[in-house]
Each structure stands twice: as C-alpha cells, then as structure tokens.
Fold this sequence. Notes:
alpha+beta; 6-stranded mixed beta sheet; 6 strands
Amino acid sequence: xxxxxxxSAAARQLAETELYRAGTTDAVTRLPSRLFFIDVLKxxxxxxxxxxxxxxxxxxxxxxxxxxxxxxxxxxxxxxxARVLRRLTRNTDIVSRLAxxxxxxxxxxxxxxxxxxxxxxxxxxxxxxxxxxxTAGPVQACFGVAEAGGSAYRIxxxxxxADRAASQSKLVGAGVTSVASSHRTRA
Length: 187
C-alpha cells in the first residue's frame, strides 16, 4: 500500500523535472536554451583552455522573407534548422537556439579549417530543408566563425566576435562565411 506522502513526493519530483526541462530547453526546437548553453560552454571552454584543445564557435544568423512571418510558420523553420543541426553535429558539439533568428554551435576539438568545412555541409543541409519547407523565400543562413584560443576563451568575446562576423556575412551576401580573428572580422 502506497502512502500519500510518497505520491506527493513523486508528483513534486515530476514537477521539478518538468520545470528544469522547461528552463533549460527551447520549447520550439527542443535544443538547449541560451542560458543552459552558456553555462555548459563556460565549462567546455575552460576544459579546452587547460588542455590547449582547439574549438570553434559558429553563429548562425537566419535571413530571408520568412523572417517577417510569425507564429507556426516561423516555428516550422526553426524546428527544421534544429533537425539539420542535430543530424550534422557530433555528440561532443554544443548547439543552442540563441534567439528567434540565431543559433549557436560550439565545435569541440575543431580548428578553423575544420569549422569552415562543417559550415559548408551545414549550409547545404539548410538549403535542402528550406526547399522542403516551401517558405515564401529561401531560408538563408549567414555564418560567423570565431576560433577559441588566447583571450577568445572568454565566452563573451567568443560569442560577440562570431555574432559580429555573422552580421558581416549578412551584409556581404548569401553563401559567405565571415571569420572573426582577434577582434577583427574578415569575409
């Protein structure tokens, strides 16, 4: 016979688990939330710094006519991008939806050359997903890449550098990946 106390404890545990999941996961994409991503990235960057291991942060800035559309359509695009990211990333990589039109990706153990190759695979995957969605226009992805190392092991600098590079990529046009290098950005 089960006591009432154990039932309420199980219900409380279930509620706490749901609250944790809701606080650490983006509801639309089921990717880690921005805050959870940043917490995990801090730990990974510190490990990479200590081990002198390469790592690269990729900022993905989505663009296109579909951005102006709200609601379910916007969610479908975000969900499709998340599926592409899940399919192409490794278990050691860290992925997050950072904002409505931005995704972040930390490629552990990957240098700049490897990140550029990965970005091209990602660009192709997003193009295929865009066609399958039938959006008002193509979903274009602008990429900014920043390699961790030196002062770029600081999370704020790494994210800011990659975001600036992605914005530069958007200005230059589709099909361009901009690389941040020691506070400078080059297309």
